[in-house]
Write a structure and sequence with these properties.
Blueprint (H helix, E strand, L loop, with lengths): L6 E3 L10 E6 L11 H12 L5 H12 L11 H10 L9 H13 L3 E5 L7 E5 L5 E4 L2 E5 L4 E4 L4 E3 L16 E6 L7 H18 L3
Length: about 210
Amino acid sequence: MSRATWLTVDPAVASIVRPGWFLASGVRVVAREPALDAPLRQAEAGLRGGGEDAEVVSAVRTMYKRVGLDPTRTRPSSEALLRRVRRGDGLPRINSLVDVINWCSLESQLPFGLYDADRLEGLATLRLGRPGEEYAGIRKDVVHVEGRLVLADAVGPFGNPTSDSARTMVTPDTTRALVVIFVPAGLPESLVLGVVALTEERIGRFCLR
């Protein structure tokens, strides 16, 4: 895993969000990893009856409100996963790396972004979306990001705490992935470090060559 300088944070959002992130190199992405079946079922069962960290959930919703978004209308990806599990559905199975990231997001209740690093152009910046900015989403026609927290590279925006872009999506061809955790700035650094470490460990266990 590498923490080379891939990501910067615009000062305008530094008091709102303090991302955790790392670059995972040498990843192996498969359509379905059977070794994930049991731990994902266990994670789903553990959260169906409660158990999420109310402080974290509240902080993520406040992060949205601070940029003018209603988190009930535009849900953080972590909250959307929790609602899915609570209504009796399993976590979506996309591919091995996405599945690990969704698992970590569900348990931590923090929104994650996952991007094929070789599809990025130049340095990524976490900032507010500019007027008219949008991108083609994964399984969505267009994601409008004006005024929202957004990740952007030299080409333009490619991800946010609700949904990511088709341009930088992870596929079985991915060998390097940028993982970004959208952490509200008020949460303790120890929590961020713990989530990053757990995510790295799980990627190492299930997704490295």
